[in-house]
Amino acid sequence: MKQRTLLITLTGPDRPGVTSRLFTVLASFPVNVADVEQVVIRGRLILGVLVSYAGGPPTGTGGTLGAMWAAVERVAEDLGMEVELTTGTDLKEKRRRGRLHVTVLGNPLQPAAMAGIAGRIAAAGANIDRIERLAHLPVTCIELAISGADSAALRAELTAEAVLQQVDVAVQRSGLHRRAKRLIVMDVDSTLIQAEVIELLARHAGCMDEVEKITTSAMRGELDFAASLRERVALLEGLPESVFDLVRKEVVLTPGARTLVRTLKRLDYRFAIVSGGFTQITDSLVSELGIDYSAANTLEVVDGKLTGRVTGEIVDRPGKARALERFAKQAGIPISQTVAIGDGANDLDMIAAAGLGVAFNAKPVLRQAADAAVNVPYLDAILYLLGISREEVEAADAEDGLPPQTSPTLGGPSGSSG
Questions:
Q1: How do the residues of the chain divide into helix, strand and coil, expressed in percent and rounded to 5?
Q2: Angle of CA points 15, 70, 82, to nearest 5°
Q3: How many CB atoms lie within 10 A of CB 24?
Q4: Eight-state DSSP code of residue 1
Q5: Where are the domains of the chain?
Q6: How does pLDDT run across 393-418, given as a tens digit for each residue?
Q7: Which of 32, 138, 343, 383 could form a disulfide bond with 388, CB atoms 3.0-4.6 angstroms apart?
Q8: Is 292 a catalytic residue?
């Protein structure tokens, strides 16, 4: 017998017992629950219940379809809510192609940006199935579930719109592919921390301007990283080994760094850092944050002074990609389940190799190559790309006895130290 459907939509002030009252009424009729969706926005509830039944109007202890409708209307009136009823015959939802998640980050997020994003989605012939807010402070993050779109084509369209609207947009495939990422591999200088360690060292050596100029060119991809590193390190010759203690005290974590690591490790992620910087500094970060794996260069020290050389194999652009593959193998995690985060040209190979490549406040050459770009100054905004909301993070912190965040950052109780 042909299945018919009824879509009942209740809207109004949210309060305890709404869902229970509605289903209690429906229980008096020979209908089956086919689908339920509910959302609460600023205390206002929207509840949709799709029920199915065979043949003509349902009958039962409550009578005909009209009797059921009257009973639902009485519940709505009693609750001070509005109700709509839509009938149909299509029970099975047509499976749409190209299910995607689109994550939009704005600081602030303006209506024009959402209009532009939604317009591009519509122009691509895609449909917005669901919209959810993942965060409202210090950035606003909205996630849209999309169907009917080609991933590459939509990403190109939304990337162009993001530039116009000055927001960040990421497009990812939905489902298990998105949820399965279990290894984070992150660059250090200007990503995990707010400075370039070699420039901090250069300040003590009196060659800051020269080193900074070379670093900037290397990060833009204008110079070979290994050659530029040797050139910069040579300028540090003669510095006392005690300079490392001074620089460690000068290192400042990027806002949100602690929250990002803490949250993902709660979810049993493995965390790695890979750096063109130096083990004399990264080793302390490994200890402080509980990092699982690390790779970096080592400055040569002889008789208590820097020689102006590095020892061992240089961790350069291809070296970072090799490190990602090595860490994944050690963790027993497929490359497809890795996330790489960086900011410069020497992160290109690592970003390309990972299951998800994220450009964090990056140079243009990396932003163009990455799967997603985040340009807000909060590192744990990357959690939203993985579908983790700020409310979930704060709830987990509260369960662990951590004080509530008081700063405007997502960095955690210590504010900008993240």
A1: 40, 30, 30
A2: 40
A3: 12
A4: -
A5: 3-88, 100-175, 183-417
A6: 988 888 888 876 644 444 443 333 34
A7: 383
A8: no
Q: Is the torsion defined by CA of 74, 79, 82, 83 positive or negative?
A: negative
What are phi and psi for residue 198, nearest 5 degrees?
-65, -30
Q: 183-186 and 338-342 as β-strands: parallel, antiparallel, unpaired? A: parallel
Structure tokens of 21? 């009252």
Query: What is the spatial distance between Cα 111 and Cα 104, in angstroms, rounded to a whole number?
Result: 12
pLDDT at 92: 54
Could you tell me the CATH superfamily of domain 183-417?
A: HAD superfamily/HAD-like (3.40.50.1000)
Assigned token pair, 230 = 């040797």
Tokens representing 161?
Answer: 């719109």
195 close to 252: Cβ distance less than 8 angstroms: yes
Residues 76, 7: contact at Cβ < 8 Å?
no
State the DSSP H helix or E strand holding residue 114, giving kind and residue range, or none if neither.
helix 111-123
If one counts every other C-beta atom within 10 angstroms of the C-beta of residue 417, the result is: 16
| Marked catalytic residue, from 189, 316, 347, 380 | 189
Read off the pTM.
0.79
What fold is seen in the domain 3-88? Alpha-Beta Plaits (3.30.70)
Which residues, 6 or more positions from 306, have their beta carbon under 8 angstroms from its beta carbon? 236, 237, 238, 239, 240, 241, 243, 299, 300
CATH of 100-175, one of 3.30.200.210, 3.40.50.150, 3.10.560.10, 3.30.70.260: 3.30.70.260
Q: Span 301-318, mean pLDDT?
A: 95
- Joined tokens for residue 352: 């390309």
**Could you give the CA distance from residue 197 to residue 66 in angstroms, rounded to a whole number?**
74
What is the secondary structure of 172-205 as a DSSP string? EE-THHHHT--EEEE-IIIIIBSS-HHHHHHHHH
Based on the residue annotation, tell me whether 187 is a catalytic residue of this protein. Answer: yes
DSSP state of 30: S
Q: Are 146 and 102 in contact (CB under 8 A)?
A: yes
Of 14, 129, 187, 303, which residue is the catalytic one?
Answer: 187
The per-residue pLDDT for range 147-183, each reduced to its tens digit, is: 988 888 999 999 999 999 999 999 988 766 666 678 9
Cβ neighbours of residue 134 closer than 8 Å, sequence gap 6 or more: 103, 141, 142, 143, 384, 387, 388, 389, 390
At residue 236, what are phi and psi to the nearest 5 degrees? -90, 0
Q: Does 100-175 match 183-417 in CATH topology?
A: no
Residues contacting 105, CB < 8 A, separation 6+: 139, 140, 141, 167, 168, 169, 374, 376, 381, 384
